[in-house]
Amino acid sequence: MQLIMSPTSPYVRKVRVMIREADLTDVIEEIEVSTTAYAPDTKAVSANPLGKIPTLLRSDGPAIYDSRNITRFLDDYANANLYPASRLWEILTLEATADGIKDATVSMAYEVRLRPETEQSRDWIEAQWVKAARAIDTISERWMSHLQGPLNMGQIATACALSYVDLRHDARNWRDGHAALADWHAAFCERPSMAETAPA
């Protein structure tokens, strides 16, 4: 299998961390592309009509895209149990919350990096940050128990979301008021899978 990817994407990183945790590096080749919302890479477009990454290419079926679809497929493929049935809906909801942080903060980054300064909307940027900050508050207040215990996809998604905030929006200081979450994130980032996938 091949993963169409870019190392700075938080959605891609979530899949790459999962691949390492599920011991799938020998069966999945990572194909790095350079792509943007305005200029999608031709490999990405040929695999996914939306031109988005990550996309997983298979020899025995159509390409799979959307990071949550890919991680569910690979979890089943590897029997990794990162979506344990006993807490499935909670883990899926935590993963969706973390992916929502990615959605909002990627949108913020695109607004600044892809649009001329005269066309950028500060109101839009701040509205996206409000969403991300609210989600971080919610994880800190309601989901810390789900960040403990055996590894699951909710944990991986949360760690990758917070690391992306550090990468693109470190001045927002998400750790302020979230000491327990900050400590958890620091410890999680020591995992080899996180170290190996950290953007250069």
UniProtKB/TrEMBL annotation:
InterPro entries, per database record: Glutathione-S-Trfase_C_sf, Glutathione_S-Trfase_N, Thioredoxin-like_sf
Keyword Transport: no
Alphabetized SUPFAM superfamilies for the sequence: GST C-terminal domain-like, Thioredoxin-like
Keywords from the UniProt entry: Transferase
Every GST N-terminal domain range: 1-82
Example GO molecular function: transferase activity
Name of the protein this chain belongs to: Glutathione S-transferase
Organism per entry: Cognatiyoonia koreensis
